[in-house]
Amino acid sequence: MTARRYRRDGGVVTFDAELCRHAAECVNGLPQVFDTAKRPWIQPENASIDELATVISRCPSGALHLETDDGRRYGL
């Protein structure tokens, strides 16, 4: 499986399900963005770029990444 990309103004969130270890840092950190009951389950427009960067940086598996339009990168 390839990583899925979720675009929003200011950047792109990438999720690789094969790497995910279900630590729930994302779901607990930004439930308005990471909601497994919704489709798509990642809705990055529901938080600021800074909020996304903070939570994505806590992902222990490296399944989540954020690349901002100005070239900043977050995640393992």
Question: What do these coordinates show?
Answer:
The chain has 76 residues and is an alpha+beta fold. The protein has one domain (4-74): Alpha-Beta Plaits. The chain is built from two helices and four strands; from the N terminus they run E-E-H-H-E-E. It has helices at 25-29, 49-56; strands at residues 4-8, 11-15, 64-68, 73-74. A four-stranded antiparallel sheet has the order 1-2-3-4, with helices on one face. The protein is globular and about 30 Å long. The protein starts with a strand and ends with a strand.
- In the CATH hierarchy, the third-tier topology is known as Alpha-Beta Plaits
Query: Main sheet: which strands, in order across?
Result: 1-2-3-4
**Count of all domains:** 1
Largest sheet: 4 strands, antiparallel
The parts where pLDDT drops under 50 for at least 5 residues are none
What do the pLDDT scores average to? 96
Strand portion: 15-25%
Globally, the shape reads globular
Give the oligomeric state. Answer: single chain
CATH class: Alpha Beta
List the SSEs and their pairings:
Layout: E1 4-8, E2 11-15, H1 25-29, H2 49-56, E3 64-68, E4 73-74
What's a concise summary of this model?
With 76 residues, the chain is α+β, with helices and mostly antiparallel strands. The protein has one domain (4-74): 2-Layer Sandwich (Alpha-Beta Plaits).
Keywords:
76 residues; alpha+beta; Alpha-Beta Plaits; 4-stranded antiparallel β-sheet; 2 helices; 17% helix
